[in-house]
Amino acid sequence: MSATPDPILLEVMKGEFLTIVEEMCATIGRTARSFGARDGGDYSGVLIHPNGQVVARAGVSVWYVGNSLPFILEKYGDTLRAGDIVIHNDPYSGGTHLPDIVLVMPVFDDDRLIAYVGNSIHHTDVGGFAPGGMSPKPTELFQEGLLLPRVLLYEEGVPVTSVFEIIAANTRAPDDVMGDLDGQIAGCLAAGRDVERLAVKYGADTVLDYARHLMSYSERAIRDAISSIPDGTYRVEDEIHGSDDVPPIRIALTLEVDGESMTVDFTGTDPQSPSALNVPPSTVAGNLLSDFPRVFEIDVPANSGLLAPIRIVTPEGTALNPRRPAAVGARSAICNRLSGLLLRALAQAVPQRVRAENPGPQMLVYTPDSEDGTSDGMVFDLWLGGGGARPSLDGLDGPVGFRRIPGELLERDASVALEGYGMVPDTGGPGRFRGGVSLFRRWRFLAPGRLWLRNLYAGRGTDGLLGGGSGSSSVLLVTRGGEVVDYTAQHDVQIRVEPGDEVYQTSVGGGGHGDPMTREIEHVVADVIAGTVSMREASAAYGVVFDAGTLVDLDATQARRRDAIARRDRRPLGE
Amino acid sequence: MPLPDAVQERSIDLRYSRQGSEHSIRVPDDVPLARIVDTLARAFHDEHDRQFGYRRPEETILASSVRLRLVLRNDAVQLSDVATMATVASSGAPVPVGTRRAYFGGDNGEVSAPVYSRSALPADVVVGPAIVEDVDTTVVVPPGWQATRGSVGSLVLGRS
């Protein structure tokens, strides 16, 4: 490897690598057929160095496509040839849960292996216990659907038709899944061509050299960020609910910062759950670090360099490193919270730099009955709540992280009517910087079918930071045969619906940051005008005094805020 | 409305059912109506294959839009009109609107460079180092270079 990279070429290569993975994702987006992939954008693509390190990534999901490579090589060694594509979804071989199907393809420059390209889509359905495959109820992997154990989907450019047939026969949504799979293959081929072109343009040695330079560059940046955190040990723990059948799962996180490296140790986390609330270890790292670079304003390529100085410990047999064949389908209830837990640990060390955590995903899966038993176009709605407030900015209102399926497309392609969709006022945690407000959707179902609802935040909000208030918990109401049933206190709802039945479902609000009594008064007024904060909340949480209509009485407001702060400061600790 | 000189370009946006994006396929003029559907379908499968590497000839193709574009030929733009507009304020020797410290490196280092407004730039030569500002661009004339006005409002830079 050349000792010092040319800074201009480094920047050019950074753009080239990113373009390859983004084009791979764009190809998937343009060819996919399911709500989740086509409209929700639930896919990702990676470019992998022959040494196994991820050079560039794009899309929503995190590292596990790259994590699959060592397991694929363990089986195939150096026998993969040009035109081979390996398919798998094994959570215990670098995968995450069965609906996430991974494809990996080697790329050659003449006879020399120069890269692997890979991608994954969160597919609509791969069979198993419940449509969508994310129910917490299964007790072992075998109940969760079709397992694809690192087999060849393409052999030297020729499709292995038996594998396609097996997949099509094992899903409730064959058109969705096979159509999306076409998109994944197209994505691999597009990325493969781009990598080949890159090798011709710059020479394979230069391409591989600069891939490693970029990983060193990212590693340097994250080492600098870690060294800006005071050395020490920071502990947090939380209970995560995702099922009403099993007790909540305790996740314990100990962050040890030592110079420019750190260890995140999950020792003390509950043993693996007899439900599907388990997270395969390959999924832990990516989710854990999804916010870290942003919080520390590390504007460098997302590649394996970011993981180099971070050791992650997940004791075997726990919910974060279960033993085969523990069920893992509902892993997103837990893994989407890991980054927030890390932020809470970091808040003990550098409270001024960290934002309140983003909430985990709410879900709705509606599977209309059909005569032939297939359920193509089943509705698969997944969204995160309002964002946690940042140290100098409000949290994002509405859905954070995922693209939400537009109502127009839902009504065009599925047997549903979307009766309402909007922001829920007063759900963002009050703070000097306010947490993002949650969203509601009101659905009416036009055909009989099965409905699964995940209500991750039953009766519980997201925490604020440095005196900021909690974001509101979620609300879940179902109207069946004209009668309203309140499922707000339940985490996992699996019911049948008939035409005319309705669901009102909200996400959860983000936590606030800092004392709400210090929020700029004009920001509170702007929230009231925008409809994200009511006048009542403006008065109760922010101390704003209105006189005759909506004019603010500044003197009275300031007096009330001074009084509120003074009263709070006098309050004994622990109250 | 009669448009005798208009060139008609017809196209149709096609996709496989439930895909999220279309390919715009040109509708040929010389294919009889009876064969047009087959011709368009074949062209769509080809285009999809070219872009994404696969075709699904057994599948239903969906048309989302039909387009007709009329192209009318215009007289060539007279670039001298642009030149006239651009030089309306010009006469006499260049007068800078200010000076700015500019770093050119090498033996030149940091110098005080005159700044000219391009709209008020006269026909005379501007000798570098100089900076010529316009509403939408900034032209740097390095030391050892000079700028002269071209025939159509352009600036021509050459070594002094």
Which descriptors apply to this entry?
heterodimer, A: 575 residues, alpha+beta, five-stranded antiparallel β-sheet, B: 160 residues, elongated
Describe this structure in words.
The complex is a heterodimer of chains A (575) and B (160). Chain A has helices at residues 7-31, 35-39, 64-76, 161-169, 174-202, 204-227, 281-288, 292-295, 332-349, 407-413, 521-530, 535-540, 554-570; strands at 43-48, 54-59, 85-88, 100-109, 112-122, 151-155, 158-159, 232-240, 249-258, 261-265, 310-313, 361-368, 379-384, 416-423, 439-445, 449-454, 476-480, 483-486, 492-497, 502-506, 546-547, 551-552. Chain A has a seven-stranded antiparallel β-sheet with strand order 2-1-5-4-3-6-7, with helices on both faces. In chain A, strand 6 (151-155) and strand 7 (158-159) form a beta hairpin. Chain A contains 13 helices and 22 strands. The longest helix of chain A has 29 residues, at 174-202. Chain A is an alpha+beta fold and 575 residues long. Chain A is globular and about 80 Å long. Chain B is α+β, with helices and mostly antiparallel strands. Chain B is 18% helix and 37% strand. Chain B has two helices and ten strands; from the N terminus they run E-E-H-E-H-E-E-E-E-E-E-E. Chain B has helices spanning 33-52, 79-86; strands spanning 7-16, 23-26, 61-71, 98-103, 110-117, 126-127, 130-133, 138-141, 145-149, 155-159. The A-B interface holds A 27, 29-33, 38-39, 175, 179, 182-183, 185-186, 189-190, 377, 413 and B 16-21, 52-54, 56.
